Amino acid sequence: MSLLEQLKFDAQGLLPCITQDAATGEVLMLAYMNAEAVENTLKTGKVHYYSRSRGRQWLKGESSGHFQLVRQIRYDCDGDCLLIQVEQIGAACHTGRHSCFYSRWDGDQVAIEGAPTVDATALYARTDILDAVYHVIQDRRRNPTEKSYVHSLFTKGLDKILSKVGEEATETAVAGKGGDRDELIYELADLQFHLLVLQAWYDLPPERVYAELRRRFGQSGIEEKQSRTQ
Asked: For the Phosphoribosyl-AMP cyclohydrolase domain, which residue ranges apply (predicted)?
């Protein structure tokens, strides 16, 4: 009898997976798996998950090289939750920390345990930097500090965020008209950052935008616009 036959996936074909450091017992993260992710985890010895936001399977460490090497797999009495003990290469968390569970509730405030052990920006390359920045924005939102610019934007609310997007879009247009490539790059980065803040307000990760671009890829822009007006 196979492992898959022991498991009970939910209506979406998913089940939660708790990932634990095999050496220390520390809980590293919680994510979801579908049947394909389980199969590929068994086949490769590296943990695969299913991203609900991106709508696809992914290999932990595929961008960063921070793989999770399987040491033991357990499942609960109902077969609807996995516990995988791993050897963690590098950091499990996108913030560069060993574990995602670094925030502790102390009754009336949040305490942050430990500093990143890996430079978070080193975990990502190419367009993945957008995902890294987005997650840092969400981290600043949930774990605010007095000097956090992101926290100040969320405190001031949606109108302030929209105002900054408009301001940066105007500055980008001016830079584009000016013809200075370095200035344009600078303003494009500012605009992209504030767009990510807006996405974070609505809990829309970059992958949602990537998915929409993929949907449009190869389609006439005129036809795509016409399809939205019908």
From this structure: 29-102
pTM for this one?
A: 0.57
Exposed (0-12), middle (13-18) or buried (19+): which is 223, by Cβ within 10 Å? exposed
Beta bridge partners of 111: 104
**Going by C-beta distance under 8 Å and a sequence separation of 6 or more, which residues neighbour residue 172?**
184, 187, 188, 190, 191
Cβ 98 vs Cβ 117: under 8 Å: yes
Residues contacting residue 18 through CB under 8 Å, at least 6 positions apart: 27, 29, 30, 81, 82, 83, 84
Distance CA 40, CA 20 (A): 19
Residue whose pair of structure tokens reads 């394909």 in the numeric block: 36
The SS3 of residue 215 is helix
pLDDT at 126: 47
Please, what are the domains in the chain? 4-88 (3.10.20.810), 124-218 (1.10.287.1080)
Q: Running along the chain, 230 residues long, what does each successive block of 10 average in pLDDT?
A: 93 96 95 96 95 86 85 96 94 88 87 78 60 83 85 95 98 96 96 96 85 78 60
Q: Output the six-digit token pair for 200.
A: 């974070």
∠ CA 30-119-26, rounded to 5°:
35
Which residue's entry shows tokens 């921070």?
66
